[in-house]
Amino acid sequence: MPLPPFPMRSESGASQWLGGNNSAVPRVTGISNTSLVPDLLVDHGEPSEVTEATPSKLEWSASDVAAICRECGWLGHADSPESHAWLAEAARLLGPQAYDRSELITLLAMIFEYDAVALYARPETCALLARSGARDVLREFATRVLEGPALDSDRFKQIVIEVKTKIPWRGQRLFHPIRLALAGRAGEGALDRVILLLDSAAELPFAISVKGTRQRMLEFCALLD
Description:
48% of the residues lie in helices and 4% in strands. The protein has helices spanning 62-71, 81-94, 101-112, 116-121, 123-129, 134-147, 153-164, 172-183, 190-202, 213-221, and strands at 6-9, 15-18.
């Protein structure tokens, strides 16, 4: 299902409406000073966009996440201790990044909806992949995702450290291709929180089969020249 229009706050706090047109790639601009987990992907020795998260004005619970998933047709019959634990973790990771319910829906949609072909066809994707080193970043990252265990915060951090030994790129040139391929958006650190939820969601019986990090990397990298 296509993403619905949603309100996103600009860095100045003003609201701007971004439509659900698949040709547009909305950035999560309503998030300032974002982070995955403290110090997870901080690039010591140079400025990093991954810093402490600014708390949301609202507090989100597992019940809130479950309600959204049910309304969007994602939840299905996922009713087990593992499912409840995932919903609570989604609220913990994504909640601080969501200023309102629409933003929380947008972040959750990145988990449940992924189409590598449509993503690759976007002009914004072509522009990012044309940047020097973007494809090298993806190949190095994909190799390690495919050969290792499921991606959690420790594994994510380790892969980034390993990739840095192979390529000279840092900051946005390093993180944006990864976030694009896995979260479907090239943006700030809040997208890393989406990525951390993928593999655990892929193991659960949601109504929509969630594509984990390996499957997303395989599908996206298969489209690279």
